[in-house]
Design goal:
single chain, about 475 residues, alpha/beta, 8-stranded mixed sheet, about 20% strand, globular
């Protein structure tokens, strides 16, 4: 029992419960009452608070929140709340910072639609993902509109950090990339997305030379992060040019491919890339040097292991997601699961896991990202799996949690406000039924999600999504 005047779970407790109810009980298409945090201070009593960035663990703890931010965190013993503060008694639960997906897209689907998929916002939030980086879009206007609706409190969802179009040189590797030929063209495109509220840019596989340098420098001049899927330049070159993040591990690491990766524009080319990546020597001197430089510079590496695992998945991993697919979509997914496995996929997954271990041992900053546009594993669920794969690669649970929280905040350039449970940070945290330090898979046992001081019930968030994924 809380030492403060507590509100037991299940009781209707003034504005907090009102805010939570407004956040989760409306249908997908219509929300007329804005989602807002409680207008009074709140204290959450927890069995344990875990802050992975500092490796601090507080037992029998409290988190005090007001105006969507954390005011105080500490042991409950001896703490005195302000008069009249409401206390939420979660004294059998464990809190971690809100999870962060540093590489997710809003386009996709089993039918490979290029339009923004707004249902992803509820799936992310229900699974404890409170911030998402969208590194490049096929429908930037749709992404911006969804972010505006989330920020206005019209629909529930995570904090979206957008990058606009893919920025690439000719020949662009994807049809919806924006090709640029000169440094000035790159600067103009950066200016365009900065003016529209992008917080980062994503440079793609053909970017190189002075055009790449100009894009990175101009983005930094606008306080934008720059992440890259490279191919025409090595990781070593990208780090020296000032890149902030690198994606996909050995799949997009030219040092593992003899120093260059040609743009992948066909299924045959991708099959060859997978083969070379699966055979990559991660002990080679150029690979080790690139990892050393990345660690020294604090470049965030997001390997997106789960995207490589998808062809190797067992059907039972998707059982808890079946309710979200339409019957026709689930039938299509079952057909895909029944296809013969490609032996290269298993070897590629093993190489991706080796990369995570080697990068961790080199002192690199690793973050969790998913990059599953076919939606053969759904948003949020894929991030849980990515954390489990980090643990499978040999990272201890605290390091896997750090990758999904504090390191994700670093990737976003928001370490001051996200990825932590500490005074001054935004009140974004996940309340779990069990301690993930004993088993990282316990991140799946989400009791409640708090974003900006608003409490969300996971099942209520996703009830409107049944049968909607195509």
């Amino acid at each position: 029992m809380s030492r403060f005047c507590a509100i037991r779970p299940g009781r209707r407790a003034g504005r907090l419960v009102l805010a939570a109810a407004l956040a989760v009980s409306v249908p997908l298409a219509a929300q007329t009452t804005r989602i807002r945090p409680a207008s009074e201070p709140l204290v959450f009593h927890l069995a344990r608070v875990i802050d992975p960035g500092s490796a601090r663990v507080i037992d029998d703890a409290f988190v005090e929140v007001d105006g969507g931010r954390i005011l105080r965190v500490g042991p409950l013993a001896g703490a005195t709340p302000p008069a009249g503060t409401r206390v939420i008694d979660w004294s059998a639960k464990v809190a971690i910072p809100g999870l962060i997906d540093t590489h997710a897209h809003l386009y996709g689907g089993l039918a490979r639609s290029n339009g923004t998929q707004p249902f992803a916002s509820r799936l992310w939030l229900s699974t404890g993902v409170t911030a998402v980086a969208v590194p490049g879009s096929a429908d930037p206007d749709g992404d911006l509109a969804l972010r505006q609706r989330i920020n206005a409190g019209v629909v529930p969802g995570p904090r979206l950090f957008l990058s606009g179009e893919y920025l690439d040189m000719r020949p662009p590797a994807v049809s919806f990339a924006q090709p640029v030929d000169t440094p000035e063209e790159a600067r103009r495109l950066v200016e365009h997305w900065a003016s529209r509220g992008a917080t980062a840019i994503k440079v793609y596989a053909s970017m190189r030379g002075e055009v790449l340098r100009a894009a990175i420098q101009h983005a930094h001049d606008h306080d934008m992060r720059v992440a890259a899927h490279v191919g025409a330049v090595t990781w070593t070159e990208a780090v020296r040019l000032g890149i902030d993040g690198l994606f996909h591990g050995p799949l997009a690491m030219p040092e593992a491919h003899g120093g260059h990766i040609a743009p992948v524009t066909s299924l045959e080319a991708y099959a060859a890339l997978k083969q070379r990546s699966a055979d990559a020597d991660l002990t080679a001197a150029p690979v080790r040097e690139a990892l050393r430089l990345a660690a020294e510079a604090g470049v965030v590496l997001t390997p997106t292991v789960v995207a490589a695992e998808v062809p190797n998945r067992e059907a039972h991993r998707l059982a808890d997601q079946q309710r979200f697919y339409s019957p026709a979509a689930w039938l299509e997914l079952e057909k895909r699961l029944a296809r013969p496995a490609d032996p290269v996929d298993a070897r590629l997954l093993a190489k991706m896991l080796e990369f995570v271990r080697v990068a961790h041992e080199a002192g690199c900053v690793l973050a969790t990202g998913t990059d599953i546009t076919p939606l053969t594993m759904l948003p949020g669920y894929a991030l849980w799996r990515e954390m489990e794969l980090f643990a499978q690669a040999g990272l201890p649970p605290m390091a896997a949690l750090r990758a999904a929280t504090a390191n994700g905040a670093l990737a976003l350039g928001r370490s001051d406000t996200l990825g932590a449970i500490r005074p001054g940070a935004l009140a974004d945290f996940v309340v779990l039924d069990a301690d993930p330090l004993g088993d990282i898979s316990r991140v799946r046992r989400v009791h409640r999600v708090v974003k900006g001081g608003v409490v969300y019930v996971p099942d209520d968030l996703v009830t409107p999504l049944a049968g909607r994924v195509e």
